[in-house]
Q: What sequence folds into this?
């Protein structure tokens, strides 16, 4: 077979940046078959969407294509020449059937045209922003954003000739007033870490349309089960798949989903950053997603029950949970989340950080660890974990008060979790048990 690279050389000579050429004709893209299960509900999509049953062996489920490279042929040479490297099997950093399968499942759950999986959530965030922004661009984002994202925006964008303004995620007027002539992206989390503030997404989307801006939402705390951000008009939605999407605390991954045009723009940035997801990790993620809807239903149920118990405990000063009527944005939560309020709960305990640390020592079931979204309950203090990169002054400015605890509520039996907290708090303060079955 004759190998021709003339087309590629011509494009180099003419300066055609073919990876970024957004007007080229597209194939259907990396799809194993038409298996989005678009007309089905969440559990059915979680199980069946994207799955590739190998016709040669009859294996039920997508095989692990644990290889770094693939045989080249006429189609792949043509894809390379035409800038369709994402659509053919060439090299695993470009694409792999294990990646394609799980990407189809994620796209189905997000109601997206396309998606990419990354080697971490931060890889998804940094690759997406660098792909969408240009030199001289400006971003409006949240003061309450995850510490790793905050550091990337604050410390690294400047190296690329870009800038950022941080605002309150709940104040749409402050957000609008921060938009500049060179603003290109509004970047927010759907539910903030750790105070669980809701960004008013539809108002944010309206600003995006008014000023011709891209709206990018990190939906890690809510996931597509609790919020379909793309359905509300968001341009791109990001998840740290390490958390709820995988849900078993055994891999690191990230996702971005949106239109085929925008995802095609992000894909070459992923190539340059080297953030593709390993085939075995893709297998683990796809396996975990089969129980995604089951897990999220239990996370949500348990979090609501535990938040209600904590709110009624005399030693708990304040509880942050959007499903509680006491939450500052309870009405927005009902409108935007429709009763699906996340598995995350934050609360402040009497006695400040000292008592908070002691409580963690007394608890038996929640594990003192960073991260969230696992089947096991995970508990930590934001001041020295997720927000540790911020100064004390910065922490206070965004509401990280003494005694604040963040809890990722797992899928254990809720009666066991409430009893564990009741015993731990009673032991800590040397008081009577406050446990009641109505919680």
A:
């Amino acid at each position: 077979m004759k190998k021709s690279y003339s087309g590629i050389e011509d494009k180099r000579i003419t300066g055609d940046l073919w990876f970024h050429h957004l007007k080229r004709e597209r194939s259907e893209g990396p799809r194993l078959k038409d298996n989005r299960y678009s007309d089905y509900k969440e559990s059915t999509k979680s199980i069946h969407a994207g799955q590739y049953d190998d016709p040669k062996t009859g294996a039920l489920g997508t095989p692990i294509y644990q290889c770094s490279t693939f045989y080249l042929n006429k189609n792949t040479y043509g894809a390379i020449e035409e800038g369709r490297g994402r659509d053919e099997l060439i090299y695993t950093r470009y694409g792999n059937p294990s990646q394609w399968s799980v990407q189809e499942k994620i796209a189905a759950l997000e109601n997206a045209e396309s998606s990419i999986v990354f080697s971490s959530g931060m890889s998804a965030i940094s690759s997406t922003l660098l792909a969408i922004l240009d030199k001289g661009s400006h971003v409006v984002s949240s003061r309450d954003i995850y510490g790793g994202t905050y550091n990337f925006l604050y410390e690294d964008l400047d190296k690329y000739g870009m800038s950022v303004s941080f605002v309150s995620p709940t104040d749409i007027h402050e957000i609008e007033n921060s938009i500049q002539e060179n603003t290109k992206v509004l970047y927010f989390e759907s539910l903030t870490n750790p105070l669980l503030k809701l960004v008013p997404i539809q108002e944010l989307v309206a600003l995006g349309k008014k000023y011709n801006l891209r709206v990018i939402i990190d939906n890690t705390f809510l996931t597509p089960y609790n919020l379909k951000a793309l359905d509300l008009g968001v341009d791109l939605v990001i998840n740290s798949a390490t958390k709820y999407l995988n849900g078993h605390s055994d891999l690191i991954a990230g996702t971005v989903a949106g239109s085929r045009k925008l995802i095609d723009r992000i894909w070459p940035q992923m190539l340059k950053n080297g953030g593709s997801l390993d085939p075995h990790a893709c297998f683990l993620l796809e396996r975990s997603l089969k129980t995604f809807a089951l897990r999220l239903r239990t996370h949500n149920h348990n979090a609501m029950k535990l938040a209600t118990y904590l709110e009624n405990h005399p030693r708990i000063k304040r509880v942050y949970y959007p499903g509680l009527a006491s939450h500052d944005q309870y009405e927005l939560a009902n409108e935007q989340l429709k009763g699906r309020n996340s598995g995350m709960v934050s609360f402040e305990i009497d006695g400040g950080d000292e008592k908070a640390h002691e409580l963690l020592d007394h608890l038996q079931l929640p594990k003192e660890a960073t991260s969230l979204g696992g089947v096991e309950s995970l508990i930590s203090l934001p001041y020295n974990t997720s927000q540790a990169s911020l100064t004390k002054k910065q922490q206070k400015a965004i509401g990280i008060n003494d005694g604040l605890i963040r809890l990722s509520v797992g899928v254990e039996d809720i009666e066991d979790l409430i009893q564990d907290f009741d015993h731990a708090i009673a032991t800590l303060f040397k008081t009577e048990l406050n446990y009641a079955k109505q919680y």
In short: The longest helix spans residues 292-311.
